[in-house]
Amino acid sequence: MLKVMFDRVLAKEEDMSLTLDSGISISEKSLGNIRHAKVVAVGDGVTEYGVFTPMQINVGDRIFYEDHVAIKDKINGEEYVILRQIDVICIEK
Questions:
Q1: What residues does 47 pair with on adjacent strands?
Q2: Are the beta carbons of 20 and 26 closer than 8 angstroms?
Q3: pLDDT averaged over the chain?
Q4: What is the structure's pLDDT at 3?
Q5: Which domains does the chain have, with CATH numbers?
Q6: Which of 90, 89, 93, 81 shows the shortest CA–CA distance to 42?
Q7: 77: Cβ contacts below 8 Å, ≥ 6 apart
Q8: CB atoms < 10 A from the CB of 40, how many?
Q9: CA 45, CA 8: separation in Å to the nearest integer?
Q10: Cα 21 from chain centroid?
């Protein structure tokens, strides 16, 4: 079992051609270097300069992020991405 630390997000990349719950259809080509993933674990938040910032992202959320900010790794044979909360562009709840 992995515990994600501080303001980190562990997610599994999903197919880039998708239709949001709102009915908006987004193709892989239109996103360029933007990636889409489903969150599988999050940290508790982070304290910087004496101020605690809780996580705004929850397990099960779908997130968009730029490909170059994520760390890609295989865990138990499956590929995941790890990134900081601040690197998430938007959340689809």
A1: 52
A2: yes
A3: 86
A4: 86
A5: 8-92 (2.30.33.40)
A6: 81
A7: none
A8: 16
A9: 8
A10: 18
Task: Record the pTM.
Answer: 0.79
Q: Is 13 exposed, middle or buried (0-12, 13-18, 19+ CB in 10 A)?
A: middle
Residue partners of 14: CB distance under 8 A and separation at least 6: 36, 37, 38, 62
- Averaged pLDDT, 72-89: 92
Q: 7: burial class by Cβ within 10 Å (0-12, 13-18, 19+)?
A: buried
Which of 28, 4, 8, 29 is CA-nearest to residue 16? 28
Structure tokens belonging to residue 18: 């998708």
The pLDDT, as a whole number, for residue 87 is 94
